[in-house]
Write a structure and sequence with these properties.
By secondary structure, the protein is an all-alpha fold. The chain has a domain at about 20-65. The chain is about 80% helix and about 0% strand. The protein contains 3 helices and no strands. Helix 1 (about 1-10) packs antiparallel against helix 2, helix 1 packs across helix 3 (about 45-70) and helix 2 runs antiparallel to helix 3 (about 45-70). The chain is elongated and about 45 Å long.
Length: about 70
Amino acid sequence: MELIEKALEFESRKMSNMTTSDRVEASREAKSLILAINEIYKKTKESKLMDIMKRLTEKKRKIEKRLKGVPTV
């Protein structure tokens, strides 16, 4: 379960003071973790995996929101 350890480590990482390239890299890492966990989830249907994916997705959305910036009206 090395994948779950990576996901939990990613989740506990600080996201402040990141450069734009760091944010892009973190977003891509989150996406790859989510997709890998999803493949395992399809086979096992463990609710623990779904919870991890939801938390990673929320963190990924926050990172991407910061990347895109505030829309001008």
